[in-house]
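Bumping my old thread because nobody answered last time. Still need a sequence for this structure:
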């Protein structure tokens, strides 16, 4: 998880989010999930957040997912011709998250979460280069994914006023 400082002004992001990572994986396949998150200020609450009983529902620190996408790494170079990941070697992975149109309000923070699964929203990956739909349950194993932060980046389409 990577979190920025609170914004001093509203910041609007509109368009495709580009992911450009150097990763190291200890298996021949894995999933890479990238999530763009809006983090509300710790003291945030909506003015009309009081229900009929008088209870208040504060939203301080709430993490609202704005956009996410998963890349099955065997498809990193081609969706038609999968290839195994080089094991334990830095590998460039580039892909695009679907378009986004979101304004991070003043005082909010931007967060990028990177993880290896979105199960059950996305099917399980056995973490080996195989046909996921025909492999046995015994084929599934754990995988470790490392992001090299010095050479990795996420490009956001920030709109200027």
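Sorry it took so long. Here it is:
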């Amino acid at each position: 998880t990577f979190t920025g400082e609170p914004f001093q002004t509203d910041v609007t992001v509109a368009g495709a989010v580009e992911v450009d990572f150097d990763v190291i994986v200890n298996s021949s396949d894995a999933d890479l999930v990238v999530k763009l998150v809006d983090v509300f200020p710790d003291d945030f609450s909506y003015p009309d957040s009081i229900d009929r009983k008088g209870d208040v529902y504060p939203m301080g620190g709430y993490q609202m997912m704005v956009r996410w996408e998963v890349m099955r790494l065997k498809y990193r170079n081609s969706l038609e011709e999968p290839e195994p990941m080089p094991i334990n070697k830095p590998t460039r992975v580039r892909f695009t998250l679907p378009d986004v149109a979101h304004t991070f309000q003043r005082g909010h923070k931007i967060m990028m979460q990177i993880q290896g699964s979105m199960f059950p929203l996305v099917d399980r990956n056995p973490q080996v280069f195989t046909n996921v739909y025909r492999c046995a349950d015994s084929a599934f194993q754990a995988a470790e994914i490392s992001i090299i932060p010095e050479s990795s980046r996420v490009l956001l389409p920030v709109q200027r006023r």
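The beta strands are 2-3, 11-25, 31-39, 63-72, 91-104, 109-115, 145-147, 153-155. Let me know if any region looks off to you.
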